[in-house]
Amino acid sequence: MLSCFRQILTQPSIAIDLGTANTRVYASQGEDFREEPSLIQHIRQDQEVQAPDDYFSYLNTQFTSSPLRGGVIVDIHNAVSLLKPLLKRTRTGLRHPVSLTCAPTDTTELERKLLTKAVRDAGAAQVAIIPEVWAAAIGAGIDVTLPSAQILIDIGEGVTDMAVIRDGQLAFATATRTACSDLQKAIRSAIISRHKVCPAHAETERLTHEIAALQQGNDANDRDIPVLGMDIIRRREVSIAVHNREILDAMAPVLAKILKMIETGLRKLPENVSCEVVESGICLTGGGSCILGMDSLIGAHTGLEVRIAPDPMHSVINGAIQTLEYWKEKENWWENIAWPCIPA
After folding, report:
1. What would the mean pLDDT of 337-343 be, rounded to a whole number?
2. Per residue in 259-301, pLDDT tens?
3. How many other CB atoms sit within 10 Å of the CB of residue 233?
4. pLDDT tens, 24-78?
């Protein structure tokens, strides 16, 4: 009975990874984990909408939006609407939880204040924020206390974040708000422009794996790929053949931005740090690391060994959970976590 009362009255702690593609929430009490797409449905699933043809039925399924863009909140009202049911489902006692949340390293103070407000409006009593790359490094199994430099690149849905971790600190960080969603948008726009067909979301995700062809020579770049989509002229679902080169040409400018950010960041490192990262290589996390050929493409442009984290899609939340477990028993632990001063 006493333990039951204690559980009800204890202030719970939660970890949140509010991503552009998915939102993940972990509650330390009961070890409850929730994961949902970071999307707001503007037409309820149980709402019947009369559609005159397949094209309008298809459009009705597309009436969704994300309250985040480039890894940061752009619509606080819908961000709260997204978070509130997740926090409510993880709540076990009477008291509002304390939240450990993550943000990209290039966020401004205003953007982090907006994130804090969204989490508090969703039901949290206090909010502490740590860099996503720091959480990703811990979640990827990197020993952040080592005195030698280690590089982590987190390629998410809306932002690509790169950090050098050395001696328990972020020694350097840089980011670009160009990532997986931009690759998919580039492919979608190219297919619509040339074929007047809007490919399904799953198809654009699949086509990003053509990055692997960049490392396979010219033979791999000369073939047609079947693609399912909605013909916007004939207003029905069709299957078309899209040449491999069209896909690669569409992705090229996006990939160039990501690679330029990485190469520029590496050139800024002091000579002694550069020597250390040659030994340790690069660790990739995030959904972008799961794209076939992304690791070899980055390796070819940097000359460094590139490895993918064991669970790259969940590295951020896994690291946030480990950080939360370390801090949660300390009194008023959220007051001891401050956003670091990150050299750029």
Report:
1. 87
2. 999 999 999 999 999 999 999 999 999 999 999 999 999 999 9
3. 10
4. 999 987 678 999 999 887 665 555 555 555 655 555 556 678 899 999 999 999 9
- In b/e form, how buried is each residue of 162-179, taking b as 16+ CB within 10 angstroms? bbbbbeeebbbbbbbbbb
d(CA 278, CA 28): 38
- Would you put residue 286 in left (φ > 0), alpha (ψ -120 to 50) or beta? left
Q: Which helix (H) or strand (E) holds 84?
A: helix 76-90
Q: How many residues does the chain have?
A: 344
Structural domains in the chain, CATH included, are 2-138+314-336 (3.30.420.40), 144-179+252-312 (3.30.420.40), 181-250 (3.90.640.10)
**Distance of alpha carbon 17 from alpha carbon 107, whole angstroms:** 15
What residue type is assigned to position 225 of the chain? I
Q: How far is CA 250 from the centre of its chain?
A: 22
Alpha-carbon distance 336 to 57, whole Å? Answer: 51
Two tokens, residue 176: 């670009």
pTM: 0.91
Residue 145 has pLDDT above 50, yes or no: yes
**Distance between first and last Cα of the chain:** 53
HSE at residue 156, side-chain half, CA atoms within 13 A, is 33
For the chain, helix, strand, coil in percent to 5 are 45, 25, 30
Strand partners, 240: 227
Amino acid at 272: N
Q: Which amino acid is at 11?
A: Q
Higher pLDDT, 338 or 179: 179
CA 256 – CA 340 distance, rounded (Å): 29
